[in-house]
Design a protein that fits this description.
The chain has 266 residues and is α/β, with parallel strands linked by helices. It has twelve helices and five strands. It is globular.
Length: 266
């Protein structure tokens, strides 16, 4: 295993300006960047296991980022691929990432790119046992979210009823969490009002503040603690809990906008 700072990041991007920008961010963090413009170049590097992480952005020679990501992993099964999704494309969701694949949304920022790279390197450098445990925990989270979703879809629910039901679930799984959610809602509404947000936006802020820790309640007990107390892939999975909430809430009546806010909570 290479020292962490000497890892190589493959960047597959046909736009020279964007490719250069991402390369500067990566090299500025002390990593080596492998910029390529064509899928065949990227696949050759993956075949030779030259890269430790890959970033795939945009449609290149009829290859979508998702298809190229799967092709890269077919060459190197341990290669974590960060897929860049256009802002007007639907999210693939937590269940669609297959563990090793990250998804970030355009337009890219240094923060979004480097956060994804660090998470991907945690995956790459983890042991096989740790990866297996990660997948098992991830399946547990997905299963729990599916149960909650199915329970809510079993009968017609109003927006207010759904919020109330989710808050009750949160408090059952994390005693005292409903009180924290209520206090967070109050603070968020004060701030939203102070900066002049309209009533509709304030409503979304209130929903998001109320439900912002719902994903934490879906995590297995060992992961329900501050992220700084976790290490390795446990921390990676814990920090992805807003993605679970986004997938759970985005299809619920009246909660899609709040889901988008919760997704960026971290």
């Amino acid at each position: 295993m290479r020292p962490f700072a000497s890892h190589q990041v493959l960047v597959v991007e046909s736009d020279p300006w964007l490719q250069h920008a991402v390369a500067r961010w990566i090299e500025g963090a002390g990593f080596e960047c492998l910029p390529v413009s064509a899928p065949d170049e990227a696949l050759a590097l993956a075949q030779e296991e030259e890269a430790d992480v890959a970033i795939v952005s945009g449609v290149i020679d009829a290859w979508t980022p998702a298809h190229l990501a799967h092709a890269l992993q077919s060459r190197d099964a341990d290669l974590p691929v960060i897929v860049v999704r256009a802002s007007n494309e639907p999210a693939r969701g937590f269940r669609g990432r297959r563990g090793a694949v990250e998804e970030i949304e355009a337009p890219l920022t240094r923060g979004s790119v480097m956060s994804a790279v660090y998470r991907a390197l945690e995956w790459r450098d983890a042991s096989a046992d740790d990866r297996a445990r990660y997948r098992e925990l991830e399946r547990s989270v997905i299963s729990q979210a599916a149960l909650v979703r199915d329970a809510c879809h079993s009968e017609p629910c109003t927006e207010a009823g759904l919020t109330s039901a989710f808050t009750a679930f949160l408090d059952r799984r994390l005693p005292g969490a409903a009180g924290h959610a209520s206090r967070t809602r109050g603070i968020a509404l004060e701030l939203a009002t102070a900066i002049g947000m309209d009533d509709a936006a304030c409503h979304v802020v209130a929903q998001a503040a109320t439900l912002h820790e719902l994903g934490l309640a879906l995590l297995p007990q060992p992961l329900r603690q501050p992220a700084e107390m976790l290490a390795g892939l446990d921390r990676v999975l814990a920090l992805r809990h807003p993605d679970v909430v986004y997938e759970l809430l985005s299809s619920m009546p009246g909660l899609a906008d709040a889901a988008a806010v919760v997704r960026v909570a971290h």
